[in-house]
Every structure is written in C-alpha cells, then in structure tokens.
C-alpha cells in the first residue's frame, strides 16, 4: 500500500450536526444514513495502480428498498447491448431506487421543484420514476455519422408508457428546434424508432427495444443496438480487454470502463501521431462497485502494463 485512510462516518456526522443545521441540512440529505466507517487504500501493483475502498453499513438504518440492493444477485443485462468496440461504458443497477429517493429528497426540500418535475413527467402518476426499471448503461463508440457517438439505455417496467413519455418529450423538444428539424418514424428488424432529421441537427434517435428505452446519437447507433438485442453483432462482454479489466474490480452493482489505448489511437488518427502522448502508458481505466449486507466495496484500477 502507498497510502491508507479511514473515517468514522457516525462520529463525523455527529461533529458536523451544528454546522449542518445552520446550513439547513441533515445527515440524510447527504445520503450518509446507515454508513458506519469508510476505509481506503492506494496500492501499486505490477501492472498499474489500484484504489480500493469499503464503506461499512448498518442495514437497519436503510430503507427497505435500499436494503434490497445489498447482496442482490441481479445482473445488468444492458451491458450486453454495448458494442464490443466501445471506447467506454458506464452501467449501474438499482437506478429506480437511487434516482427515485434522490427526487423524493429534492421534492421535500423544494415544493416548486417538485411541481415542475411532475409537470415535466419526471415524477407523479405515469411519470418516469413510476416506470423506471433498475438498470442503466451508457456507451461511447466510434461513430458513422459523427466522429464519436453513443447511447443511453435504461430499463423500464412499462414499455408502452415509456414510449409515450419519450414521444411527449420529443414533441416538446421539437418546438424548441430553430433550424427546421423534424421527427421521422423508422424501424429496423421489426423494432420501431424515431430519429431527428433536419439541417445542422444532431441526428438523435430514440425508441423502446423490448423493455429497454434507448436514446442514441444517430439512427445508425440505434440500428446497431437493435441488432445486438437480437443476437447480432458483438457485445463488449465478449471483448477480452473489457473482461480482463472488469475482473480487477468489484462490479456487481456498477461499472465504469474506459479503453484509453483505443481512444489514444483514435485521437492520433484525427490529430496526428503526437496526440495522446501524456496518457500513452495507460491502457484502461476501470471502476466498479458491489454492495452486500456488510457494506459497499468500490475499486478503481488504472492499467499500466
């Protein structure tokens, strides 16, 4: 170990109570309830650097929904929809619980914000929080229509309601487009989707694939995701570089992965041979989280062969 650190969260929150009260804040607004202590180490390994942390948790202080996330054997299937040649991804499970509770806290603190969120269809009956599933994934890839493209994917418990909500937001966005863009209906392999067509517009596309809502940066990106959902194309889960990297960190509940070597190669294609020299020794950066009844384990690994 190069460095170690420890904090007693219960004692820390107690010592900060007066200051937090003066600022109109409580410990639960910092999402600190349930945490007992946090330890962290920084280590040098033969092929890189690792930062590992553990946060002990008193499960009795958590909500039933939060307790349900601890030790869950749920697998985020959205990672299978990420391209094998993606520059990077971020994925998380338990989104419905964490996102919903964060909005509840915001609504409790600011009634005006609560009313606006319901008006926009984020909260309330039929709102996003009522139909949001547990999983989220974001991918960034080499583009076909743009140099770099990507997609946001979230699971849903009600695909029809999610599609209706996305159509509503698309109409609202369309009214703000100044250059004449228009939404065009399309489909691929029996899956309908919509994309934005117009001069100087980002050709964003959206649709619902089975129980996954997708917002992609182009129709081509949407088509590739549809094909992977039906068993075509290669998923990042089949890529050896990704598999080796995530094997170095806990990743049951969240994972973040960047293929630095591929990004450097891409930048050099665009900008010249000297670009990216500062990070050239790094091949991948990976972070992940796993939660169990004892607490949260988080790790970051920077690979330098």
Describe the structure.
This protein is α+β, with helices and mostly antiparallel strands. It contains nine helices and 13 strands. It has helices at residues 9-22, 64-69, 95-109, 111-119, 128-131, 159-174, 219-229, 240-246, 260-271, and strands at 3-8, 35-45, 48-57, 88-92, 132-142, 148-156, 182-188, 191-197, 205-209, 212-216, 254-259, 284-292, 295-303. It has a 13-stranded antiparallel beta sheet with strand order 1-2-3-13-12-11-4-5-6-10-9-8-7, with helices on both faces. A hairpin with a 2-residue loop joins β9 and β10 (212-216). α3 (95-109) packs across α4 (111-119). The radius of gyration is 22 Å and the shape is globular.
Helical content class: 25-40%
Question: Strand pairing plus helix content: what structural class?
Answer: alpha+beta
Series of secondary-structure elements, N-terminal to C-terminal: EHEEHEHHHEEHEEEEHHEHEE
* Strand count: 13
Q: Which residue ranges are poorly predicted, with pLDDT under 50 across at least 5 consecutive positions?
A: none
Main beta sheet: 13 strands, antiparallel
The coarse silhouette is globular
- Terminal CA distance: 19 Å
Major beta sheet, strand line-up = 1-2-3-13-12-11-4-5-6-10-9-8-7
Kindly report the average pLDDT value: 85
């Amino acid at each position: 170990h190069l460095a170690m650190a420890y904090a007693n969260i219960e004692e820390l929150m107690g010592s900060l109570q007066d200051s937090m009260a003066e600022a109109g804040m409580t410990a639960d607004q910092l999402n600190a309830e349930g945490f007992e202590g946090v330890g962290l180490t920084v280590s040098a390994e033969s092929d890189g650097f690792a930062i590992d942390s553990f946060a002990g948790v008193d499960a009795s202080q958590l909500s039933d929904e939060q307790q349900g996330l601890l030790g869950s054997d749920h697998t985020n299937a959205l990672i299978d929809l990420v391209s094998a040649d993606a520059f990077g991804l971020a994925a998380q499970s338990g989104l419905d619980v964490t996102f919903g509770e964060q909005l509840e806290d915001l609504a409790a603190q600011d009634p005006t914000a609560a009313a606006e969120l319901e008006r926009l269809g984020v909260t309330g009956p039929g709102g996003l929080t009522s139909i949001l599933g547990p999983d989220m994934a974001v991918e960034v890839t080499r583009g076909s229509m743009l140099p770099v493209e990507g997609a946001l994917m979230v699971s849903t418990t009600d695909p029809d309601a999610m599609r209706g909500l996305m159509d509503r937001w698309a109409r609202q966005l369309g009214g703000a487009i100044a250059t004449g863009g228009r939404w065009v209906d399309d489909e691929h392999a029996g899956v309908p989707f919509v994309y934005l067509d117009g001069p100087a517009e980002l050709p964003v596309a959206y649709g619902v694939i089975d129980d996954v809502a997708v917002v992609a940066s182009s129709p081509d990106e949407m088509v590739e995701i549809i094909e992977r959902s039906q068993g075509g194309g290669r998923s990042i889960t089949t890529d050896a570089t990704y598999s080796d990297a995530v094997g170095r960190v806990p990743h049951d509940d969240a994972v973040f992965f960047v293929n630095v070597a591929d990004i450097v190669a891409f930048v050099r294609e665009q900008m010249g041979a000297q670009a990216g020299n500062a990070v050239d020794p790094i091949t991948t950066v990976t972070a992940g989280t796993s939660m169990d009844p004892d607490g949260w384990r988080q790790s970051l690994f920077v690979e330098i062969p």
